[in-house]
Amino acid sequence: MRPVIVVHGGAGRIFKEREEGCRAGVVRAALQGYGVLKQGGSALDAVEEAVRSMEDDPHFNAGCGSVLNEEGEVEMDAIIMDGKNLASGAVSAVKRIANPIKLARLVMEKTKHMLLTDHGARLFAQAMGVPEIPGEKLITERSRERWKKNLEPDSNPVEFQKDLGTVGAVAVDSEGNVACATSTGGLSNKLVGRVGDTACIGSGGYADNSSGATSTTGHGESIMKVVLARLILYHMEQGMSPEMAADTALEYMKTRVGGLGGVIVVSSSGEWAARFSTKQMSWATVKDDELHYGIYTGERHTKSVDEALASESEGF
Ligand SMILES: NC(=O)C[C@H](N)C(=O)O
Fold first, then answer.
1. What's the rounded Cα separation, in Å, for the pair 178 and 172?
2. Residues that bind substrate, according to the entry (predicted)?
């Protein structure tokens, strides 16, 4: 099996001045994940590595760069899933850790449970030796500005829902195993304790070797209503291609509950798709040593991995 990785840096609105940073961030994450796969690493290791790279990148709404809740704090959700045995781990409403995706993986591997939240997740992180960092370290100037703007009396609540930007990855490895990972700061100015789609199995992501893997982004409450990730794999089980399944499920979410979003999909046979109903979604994929990436509908750049790695070391 030839390995494939697909990543996204969130569906929604990407302001012009952030476009290049987002393109560079998804490309870097895809190359890093692909590097893991090429060395014989598992799909699970590859998606974790790709998501960790974007959590560390302040351009994205995950890890450092997360949006703030109504009290001006970062509260993050993350999920990881192994398509081999349907094992999954998730955390929700976690604060003061750099990489929620690593904690989600620990939940999967070190507990009998699938989802730990808030205080319990914090105790678990401490028990696992995951370092606590000052909350301030996750906050960027941009997320603070956004938060303040949303508190203004004339702010438009619909507008700030468009500023999404979750990160995610799906992969198939050389043994034919698939995996997904998704991580987010959620929605700007959300209520304290709000748990979004990202932490919920079948909504924020799903992976099953018998069909494929998917990671979602967009309006969380809409994604949860249609259980978007599982819906896409259901369509694939019924014979649709990843692209057709993604478009059908996104269209259903739009018409049924008025929600917009984006998804990345890989099938167990290595077919992939990156589709969105929002105006933009940053995405990148590597298959057969060829990198593809884009942000706008119809935008697709192609480079060889060698060329991409060379421009990466020159600073993109
Ligand atoms: N940026 C996003 O994709 C938001 C995420 N789906 C949430 O609602 O928490």
1. 4
2. 194-197, 217-220
**pTM exceeding the 0.80 threshold for the entire prediction:** yes
- Cα→Cα distances 302→191, 288, 307, Å: 41, 12, 10
Residue 184 is a catalytic residue: no
* Three-point CA angle 218, 119, 51, nearest 5°: 40
**Measured from the CB, is residue 259 less than 6 Å from ligand 1?**
no
Residue 235 has pLDDT above 80, yes or no: yes
- Give the pLDDT mean for 124-135: 96
Do 183 and 54 form a contact (C-beta atoms < 8 A)? Answer: yes
Give distance in angstroms: CA of 216 to centre of ligand 1: 8
Which residues have C-beta within 8 Å of that of residue 29, sequence separation ≥ 6?
Answer: 7, 9, 50, 51, 53, 54, 57, 167, 169, 284
Question: How long is the chain?
Answer: 316
Burial of 172-200, coded b for 16+ CB within 10 Å and e otherwise, reads: bbeeebbbbbbbbbbbbbbeeebbbbbbb
Give the pLDDT score at 263.
98
